[in-house]
Design goal:
Blueprint: H1 3-17, E1 19-21, H2 22-29, H3 33-45, E2 50-52, E3 55-57, H4 68-73, H5 76-88, E4 95-98, H6 102-105, H7 108-111, E5 117-120, H8 123-131, E6 135-138, E7 142-143, E8 150-151, H9 153-159, E9 164-170, E10 173-175, E11 179-182, H10 185-196, E12 198-204, E13 216-219, E14 225-229, H11 234-241, E15 246-249
Helix pairs in contact: 1-3
Length: about 250
């Protein structure tokens, strides 16, 4: 099979399935693993797909934003592992900002028993924080239906009344060129402001967020410390590590 035929086959499979494993491509095309890996690298360089551990997937559309329900079930075990390590960074007496992401809400059970104060713009975070008996402050504004995040002018104004030791932020995409991004400008404003108000800022990101670019940028990678898992592509990790600190769990 010619190179162009293989690559067209790969793209057709991705349109049908969105994600495909290298082994599947090998079986369908009858090509070697090294050949398929070379095809995937070429297709990624031309922005037609994104390589992931063991396969490839399509890039997410810049304005597409999954609902909380959709994001909660995706890569949950990986998110919980990252969240536990993030919670280990929290010290007694810390004042924290917890973003409205599905990765940050996973931190809350691991924060129970710590003498801390938390400010959040996440509606789903509130009940979890109270259950964990953590002093909780909520920003104002209106609540987005899809992500259940408080956003808008009221949220920004009330957020500016606080200062944080640490901010923990979720993201939809991370790349060296485009930084940390999210689909909604309103949520990007909240994230950006929280980072400005914090002594240290951490972005929690499972491996699927790397290489993705959403509509609204909220930080350069050099402004934050990235917490992720060992499933991250090693090439991407090395690229981003040149600009900022990347903590990988397990190391």
């Amino acid at each position: 099979m010619l190179t162009i035929e293989r690559q067209e086959t790969i793209l057709s499979l991705l349109k049908e399935k969105e994600t495909i494993k290298i082994q599947e491509i090998i079986e369908i095309t009858g090509s070697s693993e090294s050949t398929i890996r070379r095809d995937l690298k070429e297709l990624e360089q031309s922005k037609k797909l994104k390589r992931i551990h063991g396969g490839a997937t399509l890039f997410q559309k810049k304005l597409v934003e999954p609902t909380v329900a959709e994001k909660t079930v995706k890569n949950r075990q990986e998110k919980q592992m990252i969240a536990k390590k993030a919670a280990d960074l929290v010290e007694e007496g810390d004042c924290l900002f917890l973003d409205a992401g599905t990765s940050t809400v996973e931190m809350i059970p691991f924060l129970k028993g710590k003498d801390i104060v938390v400010v959040t713009n996440g509606l789903n975070n509130i009940a979890e924080l109270l259950e964990a008996e953590i002093e909780t402050h909520v920003v104002g504004g209106y609540v987005k239906k899809g992500t259940r995040a408080f956003v808008g002018r009221g949220a920004i104004q009330s957020l500016r009344g606080f200062r944080f030791d640490k901010a923990f932020i979720g993201t939809n995409g991370i790349s060296l060129k485009d930084g940390c991004t999210t689909p909604d400008p309103e949520e990007a404003f909240i994230k950006e402001e929280a980072i400005k108000l914090a002594a240290e800022s951490f972005v929690l990101a499972d491996h699927t967020k790397f290489g993705e670019v959403s509509f609204s940028k909220f930080a350069d990678v050099k402004e934050v410390i990235i917490l992720t898992s060992a499933q991250i592509d090693s090439e991407l990790r090395n690229q981003i590590s040149q600009a900022t600190k990347v903590e990988v769990f397990p190391s």
